[in-house]
Amino acid sequence: GCGTGELLRTIGQLVADTSQLVGIDARPASIAAAQAQHPAGAYRSHRFDHQLPFGDEQFDLVLSTDLLECIVDKAALLQEMARVLKPQGKVLCAHWDWDTQVYASEQSELVRQCVHAFADWQQGWMETCDGMMGRKLWGVFQRSQHFTGRIEVFTLVETRYEPGQSGYDRLQDLKSLTKSGALALAAYQRIEQEMTRLAQCGEYFYSLNSYIYIGQKIDQKIDQKIGEQGV
Questions:
Q1: Rounded to a whole number, what is the largest CA-CA distance in the chain?
Q2: Tens digits of residue pLDDT in 208-226
């Protein structure tokens, strides 16, 4: 789910020059943009609904951010991640938990409506969605039995309400839901007005959690050998 390649470009600045970076995304337009803007990487268009277009044990690291909630067969994708990783290769999977969005507000119920509406919003390009995917990462990876790892959390905190800030942009996104009737326009406008007022008096606050699974591929051959030896 590399999108237009910004994260891949950032990773390229952190790893050795000899490293090969490969980005895959379901949307051809995103792949075209990535190839134009960040040509140092290699890019492929793939819908993640069947086998990944790579051979076995080719990669040292698989990285995914905010993709898993859109995948119908999550177990199959994790199996593919394990297949393309080298023995004891690493996986890093991060996901915003959209239901953890916090807006400081005196209108608690209206804020909850807005947060839940965004978390449940299945946009047109999504085959499925789960706004609580972040908190479910641990369980999904545990069930796969392909990895051993841990969960860490990153909390985004903002005190500015302006374009480019996540809290501002997510609230603007909700305008689409008022058009479909999934969120009442009056409720949305009241929250938007309150956030503007709080920003003007320096009291605006927003936060959001991202949960990050950091793991390593389990070497099934070693496990099998240990089992046979009865260790």
A1: 69
A2: 999 999 999 998 665 555 4
First to last CA, the chain: 40
Looking up tokens 């590399």, which residue turns up? 2
* Helix, strand, or coil (residue 216): strand
143-175 tens-digit pLDDT: 999 999 999 999 999 999 999 999 999 999 988
Global pTM?
0.88
Give pairs for 42-49: CB < 8 Å, separation 24+: 43/2, 43/5, 48/1, 48/24, 48/77, 49/73, 49/127
Taking CA atoms, 69 is separated from 1, 53, 227, in Å, by 11, 21, 35
- 21 touches 8 (CB < 8 A): yes
